[in-house]
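ARCHIVE CARD
CATEGORY: sequence design from structure
SOURCE FIELD: tokenized fold
FIELD CONTENT:
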């Protein structure tokens, strides 16, 4: 512990006090000389102590001033480091939030340029797992260079050094250690700079790519600058990885979107084809039967205890067709007649079974059983005769129509595998056909089974008992019309 001043000069103070007291007393020359000698010795000792303290004071002051200067310098360095770290943090946030690699490269270049390092050229090489470093993003003198350079990792180049050693490579124009790499660089890029730095970009141990910073100024890569770049490359690696992940995600999303668009188109086309197929199927089959087929039923056969069948045949049409000047006109006339019949069948919710030449077959009470099918069929037959007269008058052709109707039990089902047909079988079908063939032009001829069900609603002309081919004697009737 340092002595206090009064402790350092204790003896001298004591001598001085004794000298003062001696002066106050009667002194002899001897005693005075003794006091003077004693005081002189004390004074000389005091002078030596004073010089010593002055020297100690100067040294302490110099050390204090140096310490102050060191503290001021350290503070300045600390402030500069804080500013650098804060700047890097802001740049790090900016580039890690960007998904555009070009924007990332430009941001890094501007940061380095305005932090007084002023590089002439920076480039980012992206690592490819196939053994390549692809320098797709190169920025020189404030603008992108439209070039793509590829370094193979099995050749002598700076990319290989960075990837193999996992550390930075610093070189320059006159460096002999990397002469081969410099020569290859010059061949590819056309220029070699005074200061060149290649730093690996990685996340943990995974290589993302390589950053190269190059300048026409010598030895710009100081320890502080390298520390800044090292921190910056940590952010840059994350930014590039994020951008690559975003790009891959965007690419997959686009592929998924394109695939979904194609699937939607295919589904739309399939739906159109399905609707077309359904329409075609409904043109030849009742809707309920079509649904059963689509549901997977392979054999459809239903028994109906009561159904009314109608046959309508154009009398004299075979002779007329032989005299027709144009086949197209023949088909056109027949089409207009059958189209009108289809409309009548639809209006009464009856089922068209088929056409055979110029004969039209219609049924009621199938495939959905109803109680009013005889009435609907008779009304349809009367309408057919009426509309047929209008059509033939318009075309000016000398033909008539016969309509035959019978009610009885039938079996209905689908036959065929590629060309489906919904057809009816049973004695009732044969009888209805005989009613048509034994009928008269322009009349609805029916069996007693029809007349007995509708005698309260329609007027009938009793034809009596006639001989029916294949059936024998039968009591039949002509339908005159509805009762008033």
């Amino acid at each position: 512990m340092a002595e206090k001043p009064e402790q350092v000069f204790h003896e001298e103070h004591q001598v001085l006090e004794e000298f003062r007291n001696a002066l106050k007393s009667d002194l002899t020359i001897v005693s005075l000389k003794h006091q003077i000698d004693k005081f002189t010795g004390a004074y000389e000792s005091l002078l030596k102590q004073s010089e010593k303290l002055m020297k100690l004071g100067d040294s302490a002051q110099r050390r204090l001033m140096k310490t102050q200067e060191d503290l001021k310098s350290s503070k300045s360095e600390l402030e500069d480091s804080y500013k650098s770290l804060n700047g890097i943090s802001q740049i790090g946030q900016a580039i890690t939030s960007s998904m555009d690699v070009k924007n990332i490269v430009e941001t890094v270049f501007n940061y380095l340029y305005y932090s007084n390092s002023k590089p002439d050229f920076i480039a980012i090489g992206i690592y490819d797992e196939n053994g390549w470093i692809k320098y797709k993003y190169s920025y020189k003198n404030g603008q992108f260079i439209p070039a793509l350079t590829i370094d193979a990792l099995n050749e002598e180049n700076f990319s290989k050094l960075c990837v193999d050693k996992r550390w930075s490579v610093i070189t320059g124009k006159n460096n002999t250690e990397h002469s081969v790499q410099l020569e290859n660089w010059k061949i590819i890029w056309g220029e070699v700079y005074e200061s060149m730095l290649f730093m690996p970009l990685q996340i943990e141990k995974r290589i993302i790519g390589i950053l190269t910073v190059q300048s026409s100024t010598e030895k710009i890569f100081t320890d502080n600058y390298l520390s800044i770049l090292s921190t910056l490359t940590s952010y840059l690696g994350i930014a590039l990885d994020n951008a690559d992940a975003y790009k891959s995600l965007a690419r997959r999303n686009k592929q998924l979107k394109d695939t979904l668009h194609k699937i939607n188109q295919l589904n739309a086309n399939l739906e159109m084809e399905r609707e077309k197929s359904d329409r075609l199927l409904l043109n030849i089959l009742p809707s309920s039967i079509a649904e059963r087929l689509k549901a997977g039923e392979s054999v459809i056969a239903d028994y109906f205890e009561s159904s009314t069948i109608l046959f309508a045949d154009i009398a004299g049409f075979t002779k007329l067709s032989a005299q027709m000047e144009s086949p197209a006109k023949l088909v056109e006339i027949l089409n207009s007649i059958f189209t009108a019949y289809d409309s009548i069948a639809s209006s009464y919710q009856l089922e068209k079974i088929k056409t055979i030449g110029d004969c039209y077959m219609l049924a009621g009470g199938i495939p959905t059983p109803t109680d009013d099918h005889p009435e609907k069929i008779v009304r349809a037959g009367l309408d057919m005769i009426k509309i047929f007269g209008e059509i033939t008058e318009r075309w000016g052709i000398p033909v008539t129509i016969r309509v035959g109707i019978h009610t009885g039990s039938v079996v209905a089902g689908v036959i065929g595998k590629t060309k489906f047909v919904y057809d009816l079988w049973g004695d009732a079908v044969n009888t209805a056909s005989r009613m048509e063939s034994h009928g008269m032009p322009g009349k609805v001829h029916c069996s007693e089974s029809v007349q007995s069900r509708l005698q309260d609603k329609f007027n009938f002309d009793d034809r009596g008992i006639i001989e029916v081919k294949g059936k024998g004697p039968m009591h039949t009737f002509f339908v005159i019309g509805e009762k008033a």
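CARD ANNOTATION: The chain has 13 helices and 15 strands. The first strand starts at residue 121 and ends at 128.
SHELF: design records, drawer C
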